[in-house]
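Quick bug: Cytochrome c domain-containing protein output formatted oddly.
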Amino acid sequence: MKQYVKFFIVIGTISATLLTACSSNEQQAELDADLVAEGEKIAKSSCIGCHAADLSGDMGPNLRQLKLSKEEIVEVLEKGRGSMPPATAKGHEEAVAEYLLSLQ
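Here's what came back:
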């Protein structure tokens, strides 16, 4: 009988851990969706002048086919690159990076 009690305690602990992990993943997904939505607003107001309305490229490169990591995108947004000026996302670099990565 004691073995069954121990078994159910172990199963209960594992279940609680898994439920907590799932809840954290759902919260992370919500956060990412919020960042993507925020990034989309910024990109549509700040990036379309050089990268076209659909971000497929014009004077600037195609942003729909970036081969950069999130960190690299944030760095380009903060520091600029080539003819792109720095600080174009004005503190929203992470959100813009999330949005651009969602287009890939």
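Actually, after a second look the formatting is fine. DSSP finds four helices and no strands in the chain. Closing.
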